[in-house]
Amino acid sequence: NTSKLKQEPLSTHHHPCSCRSSSIFHLAKKSVFSQIGKTKKMTLRLRSSSWKSNLLKILRHNHGFGSASHAARHLRQKPPHEPTLRVSQNPISRFCNTMSEKLSSIGEHEDANTQVMDFPGGKVAFTPEIQFISESSKERVPCYRVLDDNGQLITNSQFVQVSEEVAVKIYSNMVTLQIMDNIFYEAQRQGRLSFYATAIGEEAINIASAAALSPEDVIFPQYREPGVLLWRGFTLQEFANQCFGNKSDYGKGRQMPVHYGSNKLNYFTVSATIATQIPNAVGAAYSLKMDRKDACAVTYFGDGGTSEGDFHAAMNFAAVMEAPVLFICRNNGWAISTPTSDQFRSDGIVVKGRAYGIRSIRVDGNDALAMYSAVHSAREMAIKEHRPILIEALTYRVGHHSTSDDSTRYRSADEIEWWNKARNPLSRFRTWIESNGWWSDEEESDLRSRVKKEMLEALRVAEKTEKPNLKDMFSDVYDVPPSNLREQERLVRQTIKSHPQDYPSDVPL
Fold first, then answer.
1. Domains along the chain?
2. Annotated catalytic residue, options 70, 140, 354, 410
3. Active site residue: 145, 397, 423, 428, which one?
4. Most buried of 77, 213, 412, 491, CB within 10 angstroms?
5. Closest Cα partner for 35 from 65, 10, 60?
C-alpha cells in the first residue's frame, strides 16, 4: 500500500539521490510483492518484468496515471540536475525518478546479446564486446554515373530519361557557359574587369542540376553556379552588367564580379563569405514546407565549404526539422590551394550525410546525364518525403580558383590538361547526343559562332553603360540614413574631390 508514502514527510535538506529515495524504492518493491502474494503463492524470486508490470498497475490505480504507458513514461524520466539544498517535492515524483534509475539495471543476468534498450533516438542493442566504430569503411562509397569517359551508356545504367529538346538545351547552355567564362576571363586579364572566377570543368554540375529543378525552387549559390542562372533565362547582357557594375546591374555596382543575384529567377545574391548560404537555404526550405509549397531550396558549395561550421549546423538543422533542401557539394579536389587530403580524413563529403541522418549520394559531376538523374530524383524525395538530401558531385576545377590565383603553383599543368581532355563534361555529353542523332558538327559551329558574337556585344554595351550614382553606395539599408552613414558619404565625396585622378571619372557624383 503506497499510501504510506504520501503521508511520510521529506526533509528539505536531502539530495535527490539520498538514501531516503532508496528506502522509498524498497517500500514500493515490498508493496508490489505483497500485492502479488495475495493472489498467488509464489517465491520472492520474481523476474524483473513481473514486479515491474505490477508496479505500473499500482501507480496507475493509486496515483491517477491515465494508462500504463503514462506510468511507464514517468518511470523513464530522469531526475533533473538540482543543487543539494532544495524545497521538498512530491514523494511520488521522487520515487518515480529513482525507479527509472533502478529499472535501467534490470536483466543484468540475461544474455547481453539479446538485450535491447529504448534510449533517446530509438532502440539500441547491447554487446559484451568492445567494438569501436571504424574511422573509415574498407571501401569508398561508389560514384553513380551513366555515361563512361567516352560518352557511351554504361550497361544496365539507371537514369531519368530526357527529351531531345532538354538534352540539346543542356549541351547548348554548357557551351555558352564555357564561352562566357573564356571571354570574361580574357577581359579581366586585359584590365577591363577587376575580378573573375570561371566554372571550367564544372559545367555539367551547373547546367544539368538546373535542368532537373523547377523555377519555383529557391537557389542559394556559391560563386561558381552562373550556369543555374543561365538555364533560368538570365541573359548574357545581365551577366555582363553585373561584372562591370554599371547602372543596369541589379546590385548597383556594390558587389564583386560573378556575385550575381535575381529576385525574378529565385536566385539569391552570391555572398563572398564561404558557406553562409547553406544555413540560409535550410531556413528557406523550412519556410517552403510550412507554406506547403511544391518546391524545395537548393544550395551549392565547394568541398572547402564543408570545413566551415555553417555547413555542419545547417545539416543538423535540416535533418531535425525535416526541411526539403538539396545540399549539392562540388568536390573538385581543391579549396583554392588546399587539397581535400588536408581538409578531412573522411571518405569525401557523402559520408557526412549519414552522421546527421541525411540521405546521400555520390555522383560523377562530369557526367551531365548522371547529375540530371540524381538531382531529379533527389528533388522528388525532398518535396514528397519532407527530407534533406546531400549530393556530392565529384569533379575537377580545370580553371584557376579565380583571376587572383595561379593553380600551377600547387598542381601540375599535366594534371590539369589530362582532366580537361580525358574527363571533359562537354565532349562526353556531346558524344551521347550525337549518338542519338540530336547534334551535328554544323550545329556545333553555328552555336559557338553565335554565342561568341552575342557575348562580345554584351561586353561592349556593359562597358560603355554609365556607372551607378555614388549615392547608391549608401542607400537601400536604412529608410533614413543614420548620422554615421551620412558622415561616411561626406568623407568619400571629399576624398574624391581632393584626389580626382585616383577615382573613375565615369561615376556620377
1. 164-466 (3.40.50.970), 469-508 (no CATH)
2. 410
3. 397
4. 213
5. 60
